[in-house]
Design brief:
Length: 635
C-alpha cells in the first residue's frame, strides 16, 4: 500500500448526465495509460470528497445539464465543496484541471465547469492548465476542444513532473496489447432459467410481472457503469389512451398519452417527471445478434474484469444470476438509436480483416479524421447496427460490444396531469421526434416513436420511474406566471387542473397567467379547449380571477410572434402579479427560449418599476435565489 502511495497517480473524476463526460474521461484515462502514466478513472459519486486534499493531481470532466444544472451524480460532491467550514487552504498542494462539456446555444454554457473551477481555486488548489470547454456546437462536437486541451495537459504535467510520463508526453504505446483485456468479462451458463421456468422474456401484459422485473434488474445492474438503485422500476404502466393533439399532416406529431399502473398504485405531484425505459424493435435486436454471430438463447453473467471497478452492490445476489443474452441486449444496449463513440471505431480497426476497412477505421479514430468521423457518425446519427453493417469484415468479441455500445437510457418526460384530477393515472404530452440528416436520411426518436406506436388494446408493459423535476408544486395561495410554448405546456396542464380542483373545494387560490405558444392556431394549438374552459366563467385562468391566458401563434402572420412578445404586451399585468409575490415557471425547448423569456422579464421589470436593465436583471436573479423563478428545459 505504501509503495502504491508513492507512485504518482493521476485521478480523473467525471460527472455525466448523458454519457459524454464518461467517454471523455475514459479517453483521457486511456491516453494517459498509453504514455505510461498510472491513472484511476471514477465517477464523482464513487469518490469520497473528504479525501480530496490527499490527491496530488486531479482532472475533472464535468457536463452541464439543462439550464446550468449539476449532473445528478455530482450533487452530493458539490454540496460538500460548498461547505462554509472548508478553509481557503483546504486544497493547498492539490493540482487540478477542469474540462467541461456543454452547448453554447444554452444560456448557461458550461456553467458547472466554470463554477467548479472557481470553487477549487477558492479552496487553495492550483490549476495546472486553463479550463477546457467542449461545445456541442463545434463541427467536431466536444472533441474539437478536448484534443488540443489534452495535448497541452500532458505537456504541462510532464514539465511539472517528468516522472508521470517516463518516455515524454508524445510517446504512445499501442493499444493492441490491451485488446485481450476489455474492462468486463462474460461468463456463459447452461441454458436454463434460475427461477426454473425457462420463461421467454416478454413486455406484454400477460407476462409474469415479478419475472419481468427481475430480468430488468438483473440485466441493467450487470451493464457497465450502472447502479442498481435506478434499475428496479417504480412501477409498470400500461397505455390506456394514445390521442393525437396536432393536426394530421401538419409536419408535427404531438400526442397525449394516458397511462395506468398495472399492479400497485402510483404517487406523484404536479411538476414531477416520469422516466420511461423504451422498448427496442425485435427486428433490430435480432439483426444485431445475427450480425455479431451471437447465440440469443445462451445465458450470461456480465461482471467487471477488475472487481474494484465497481462499488459493492447490496443486491449482488439478485443481480449476478444469469440472464438470457437476447434479453440482456434488448434491455441494456442501444443498438439502433444512439451513435457509437470514437473509441468504438478505434477498437473496430483492430478487428477489421479487410485492409481498406482497417485503414478507414484507423483514420476515423485519429485526430486527423476527427471532423470526417463527426460528419459520418454523429451528424448522421448513425447507429451501432448501421456502423457494423458498413464494415462487414469486423467481428468484435461480445465483451467489447458490451463495453462500447452506448447504454439504453431511460427517457424523461414532464408529467401533464394532476393525481387529484386523475386518480391513479399519469398523463404525458409528447412530441414525436423526427428529423432529416444532412444526407437526407429520415430519423426518429427511439422512445417517442415507440410510445406513439403502442396500441392501448395490446397492453404492453412500460417500465417507469417517478422523480422530482425542476418545477416544485406551487401552494394554492401563490400567484403564478407560467410560460410554456409547445410541449412546454405539459407540466402547466397539471398545475391548472390541480388549482381548479383546489378552488372548487373552497381553498383560497391565487391567480395564474399562462403564456402559451405554437406555430398555427389550426395545426398545433395543444389542449385548446382545456385552456379556454379555464379562462372563462370564473376559471383559474380567467381575467375576473386576476389571471389570463395568452397565445402566440408564431406562423399565422408574416412576422413571427413568440411568447416573449405576448408577455411584453401584458407588461402591466405581469408586473402587477410579480409585485404581489408571484412565482415564475418556464418550460419548453432549451435552446433560445429560456433566455428570450428572461430577457422579456428584464424588460418588463425595468419598464414597469422604472429601474435600469441591470437592476432588473439583479432583481430577477434574487427571485431565482429565493426559489421563485424555475426553468425546466429540454433539447
Amino acid at each position: 500500500m505504501e509503495e502504491k502511495a508513492k507512485r504518482k497517480l493521476l485521478l480523473i473524476l467525471y460527472a455525466s448526465q448523458t454519457g459524454n463526460a464518461i467517454d471523455a474521461a475514459e479517453r483521457l484515462g486511456r491516453e494517459a495509460e498509453r504514455r505510461g502514466c498510472p491513472v484511476a478513472v471514477l465517477s464523482v459519486d464513487e469518490f469520497d470528497p473528504i479525501s480530496l486534499p490527499n490527491e496530488e493531481i486531479v482532472v475533472f470532466v464535468v457536463s452541464t445539464t439543462g439550464q446550468g444544472d449539476t449532473p445528478d451524480s455530482m450533487k452530493v460532491f458539490w454540496r460538500f465543496l460548498l461547505q462554509r467550514n472548508l478553509s481557503q487552504i483546504w486544497l493547498k498542494g492539490v493540482n487540478y484541471a477542469v474540462f467541461g462539456l456543454g452547448d453554447s446555444s444554452y444560456q448557461k454554457y458550461n456553467f458547472v465547469a466554470k463554477k467548479l473551477d472557481k470553487r477549487l481555486l477558492d479552496l487553495g488548489a492550483t490549476p495546472v492548465i486553463e479550463r477546457g470547454l467542449g461545445d456541442d456546437q463545434h463541427p467536431s462536437g466536444y472533441e474539437g476542444a478536448l484534443d488540443p486541451w489534452m495535448s497541452s495537459l500532458w505537456n504541462v504535467l510532464h514539465q511539472n513532473n517528468p516522472m508521470l510520463f517516463p518516455n515524454g508526453p508524445e510517446y504512445e504505446t499501442s493499444n493492441i496489447e490491451l485488446l485481450d483485456q476489455p474492462k468486463i468479462k462474460i461468463t456463459y451458463h447452461d441454458a436454463y432459467d434460475t427461477d426454473g421456468r425457462n420463461q421467454q422474456f416478454s413486455m406484454s401484459l400477460v407476462a409474469d410481472l415479478n419475472f419481468v422485473e427481475k430480468q430488468i434488474v438483473r440485466a441493467r445492474s450487470m451493464f457497465p457503469g450502472t447502479h442498481s438503485g435506478k434499475n428496479r422500476p417504480d412501477c409498470f404502466l400500461r397505455m390506456v389512451k394514445n390521442d393525437p393533439l396536432s393536426k394530421v399532416g401538419c409536419g408535427k406529431d404531438v400526442r397525449h398519452f394516458e397511462l395506468e399502473p398495472v399492479s400497485s398504485s402510483i404517487q406523484y405531484e404536479v411538476g414531477d417527471v416520469l422516466e420511461v425505459l423504451p422498448g427496442q424493435s425485435a427486428a433490430s435486436v435480432d439483426a444485431f445478434i445475427k450480425r455479431c454471430n451471437l447465440n440469443p438463447d445462451s445465458y450470461i453473467r456480465v461482471q467487471p474484469r477488475d472487481k474494484d471497478q465497481r462499488p459493492a452492490d447490496k443486491t449482488i445476489s439478485t443481480v449476478m444470476l444469469p440472464v438470457r443474452l437476447r434479453t440482456f441486449v434488448e434491455l441494456t444496449m442501444d443498438i439502433a438509436s444512439a451513435s457509437p463513440r470514437r473509441y468504438f471505431f478505434e477498437i473496430m480497426s483492430y478487428f477489421a480483416t479487410a485492409e481498406h476497412e482497417k485503414e478507414r477505421l484507423k483514420y476515423f479514430a485519429s485526430s486527423e479524421g476527427r471532423d470526417d468521423l463527426y460528419q459520418y457518425n454523429q451528424k448522421e446519427r448513425r447507429t451501432v447496427l448501421e456502423v457494423l453493417d458498413d464494415f462487414p469484415s469486423v467481428q468484435m468479441p461480445f465483451e467489447w460490444l458490451v463495453q462500447l455500445v452506448p447504454p439504453l437510457k431511460t427517457r424523461a418526460f414532464s408529467i401533464s396531469s394532476s393525481l387529484l384530477a386523475h386518480p391513479n393515472q399519469v398523463h404525458l404530452t409528447v412530441s414525436i421526434v423526427s428529423w432529416t440528416t444532412p444526407y437526407k436520411r429520415k430519423r426518429t426518436g427511439l422512445c417517442s416513436s415507440w410510445l406513439a406506436g403502442l396500441d392501448p388494446q395490446q397492453g404492453v408493459l412500460i417500465p417507469a420511474w417517478f422523480h422530482k423535476g425542476s418545477l416544485p408544486p406551487p401552494p394554492p395561495p401563490l400567484p403564478l406566471i407560467l410560460v410554456g410554448p409547445g410541449t412546454g405546456c405539459a407540466p402547466f396542464r397539471g398545475f391548472v387542473e390541480e388549482r381548479a380542483l383546489q378552488s372548487k373545494s373552497g381553498t383560497t387560490t391565487a391567480p395564474i397567467i399562462f403564456f402559451f405558444g405554437c406555430r398555427n392556431e389550426e395545426n398545433d394549438f395543444l389542449y385548446r379547449d382545456f385552456w379556454q374552459s379555464h379562462a372563462q366563467n370564473g376559471g383559474v385562468l380567467s381575467e375576473e380571477k386576476g389571471g389570463g391566458f395568452f397565445v402566440a401563434f408564431s406562423r399565422d402572420q408574416p412576422q413571427k410572434v413568440y411568447v416573449q412578445h405576448k408577455m411584453k404586451e401584458q407588461s402591466t399585468k405581469v408586473w402587477s402579479l410579480l409585485a404581489e409575490g408571484a412565482a415564475v415557471y418556464v418550460a419548453g425547448s432549451a435552446s433560445k427560449m429560456p433566455s428570450d423569456v428572461l430577457s422579456a422579464f428584464e424588460e418588463i421589470v425595468s419598464k414597469e418599476s422604472g429601474v435600469s436593465r441591470e437592476a432588473a436583471a439583479r432583481w430577477l436573479r434574487a427571485l431565482e435565489r429565493a426559489g421563485k423563478y424555475h426553468v425546466e428545459a429540454w433539447s
